[in-house]
Predict the structure of Clavaminate synthase-like protein.
Amino acid sequence: MKRSQCLFHTNPWVRFQRYPVAVRFKASSSIQQQQQQQQQPRSNFSTKSYLHSYHPLQILKDASVAHFREQSFTPELPTILPRAHFQNLPAFERWFHPNTSRLNTTYLEQHGADAFVPLELTQPPTQSNDAHAEPSFRHFHAPLSLFLQWIRAAETEPQASQLYLAQCQLLDLPAILRDDFPTPKLVAQAGRGDVYDTNVWIGYPPTYTPLHRDPNPNLFVQLAGQKVVRLLAPDDGQAVFASVRRQLGQCSDRGAAAFRGEEMMQGQERALLEQAVWEDDPGLSTPAHGYEARLEAGDGMFIPSGWWHSIKGVGEGVTASVNWWFR
């Protein structure tokens, strides 16, 4: 759909002819044995874990392909790469203003305004007097220009409705923007060199991805702002997920939750998954014991296939990431 098909009015509502979505803008184990190698975080945001059973994830001292392959990729162990290892990606200079967590909307508007991208819309409950009312959630596609307009509004004033550019495939963007994300050597050389997908994630905190697992190894790089990642080994994560599914009266087979699904982003399933991973008292028969990674711009981490993880965007300013699924 071309940008000209969207109706941008002077009033605060923006609607699409084709999609029933309205967005309101306001005016203006073996890992534990390696923990002695752990380095201290670089920033001033808290290092306190939300739950004491989540241990800090180790940081590799050497980002060479051989060391990464031996220590992490082949044994399928998650790890944080050396801090700021990925800060030389061209996207850092082009997609963001220098030394800030502000998106360069002018650059993206110039080269990709009409690109059709996936967006997640979270809106507050319509009945504010209902203590049990939950936010509404919708996934839809729209021109990138809509998201950039929302970002400009969010820079000046907090927005009640949240837009998240979630799992936007690089293939959906023009070539000039795709070129800002050259494939890292670790992705191209550690395994067979097969890249299955590359995705960009951009929003304002709080952003949230519920507990799930990926079918392929994942290199996850923070581009701007901060994210906290919590990880559970395959069997531990399956036990937590199965406990949540039993509470919902649903099947807990191992084929479930292979992807970040819309059903995880709303209702009771979202609430129970978030409680199981992030609250001090998860209330589960199988308590979670895992690892935690705290990432800033330029940091990257490796998540092996089958490892369960949940991610939260925190702090001030835009939080943005890119990931490569590969083998």
Confidence is low (pLDDT under 50) at residues 1-20, 33-52.
